[in-house]
Amino acid sequence: MSAMSDVFLRGGDCVEDVNRSECHLRESPEVRIPTSHTIGRAIKELSHEDMEYKSSSGNVFRFNTNPRLNDLLMKLNMKMGLFKSGKTVNVDFDHLFVKTGKADATYSYKHAYGYFPGVASIDGIIAYIENRDGNTPSSSIRLTRCQGLSCILTF
Question: Mean of the pLDDT values across residues 29-51?
Answer without folding.
Answer: 79
